[in-house]
From TrEMBL:
Keywords: 2Fe-2S, Acetylation, Iron, Iron-sulfur, Metal-binding, Phosphoprotein, Repeat. Pfam families: Rieske_4. GO terms for molecular function: 2 iron, 2 sulfur cluster binding; metal ion binding. Residues 11-110 form the Rieske domain. This is Rieske domain-containing protein. The keyword Coiled coil does not apply. InterPro entries: Rieske_2Fe-2S (IPR017941), Rieske_2Fe-2S_sf (IPR036922), Sol_Rieske_ferrdox_dom (IPR054716).
Length: 159
C-alpha cells in the first residue's frame, strides 16, 4: 500500500498490524513525506526514509543493536541511525581513558522520527515536525527528490 492515506487529526492509517509485521519494512507517503515504517523486536518505528547524510535508501539497511540502541545502518556509507529517536551514532576513541578505548558517541538527532500508535489492530503514524529543522528534511518532498538525484550522481562520479 503506497501513496497518500486519509488523515484524522494528524493520524494517518498506515495498515493493519499483522500486515506491517509481515512486511517488516513498509514505505508510505504521508503529507508528501516519504516514511519508512519498521517492525523490529516487537516494536514499531517510523522515520524519514532517506538518510540525512546523502539521501540513501534506509529501507535497504541492516538493523543492529548498537550500544543498547536499535539502529539502522544506511547501506550507502554505513551511518548508524537510532530507530527510536533519529540520533546518529559514531565510534571514536575516548582520549580521557588510559589506555584510550573506542566507544560510541552521538552526533545528535539527524533523522526525523514519527509517532506510531496502534488501536485494535490498526496502525497509525502521526508526523512530527519538532524540533524545527532536522537534517533529513533536506531529502524530502519535490526539492528533496532533486537533491537525492544530485547526491546519487555525485556518488557515481566518485566511485
Ligand atoms: S547516505 Fe546514508 S550514510 Fe551516506
Amino acid at each position: 500500500m503506497d501513496g497518500e492515506e486519509q488523515a484524522t487529526e494528524g493520524l494517518h492509517f498506515v495498515g493493519k498490524k499483522d500486515q506491517l509485521i509481515e512486511e517488516k519494512r513498509s514505505f508510505r507517503t504521508l503529507e508528501g513525506r516519504d516514511i519508512l515504517i519498521i517492525h523490529q523486536q516487537g516494536a514499531f518505528y517510523a522515520l524519514d526514509s532517506y538518510c540525512y547524510h546523502a539521501g540513501g535508501a534506509l529501507q535497504n539497511g541492516d538493523i543492529e543493536d548498537i550500544d543498547g540502541k536499535t539502529c539502522i545502518i544506511c547501506p550507502k556509507h554505513k551511518y548508524k541511525i537510532c530507530l527510536a529517536n533519529g540520533e546518529s551514532l559514531y565510534k571514536a576513541t575516548d582520549p580521557t581513558q588510559d589506555p584510550p578505548a573506542p566507544r560510541w558517541y552521538s552526533k545528535g538527532v539527524k533523522q526525523r522520527t514519527h509517532m506510531v500508535t496502534e488501536t485494535n489492530g490498526d496502525v497509525y503514524v502521526k508526523l512530527s515536525y519538532n524540533p524545527g529543522w532536522v537534517e533529513s528534511d533536506f531529502y524530502q518532498g519535490e526539492k528533496g527528490k532533486v537533491e537525492r538525484a544530485k547526491a546519487e550522481a555525485a556518488d557515481k562520479a566518485t566511485s
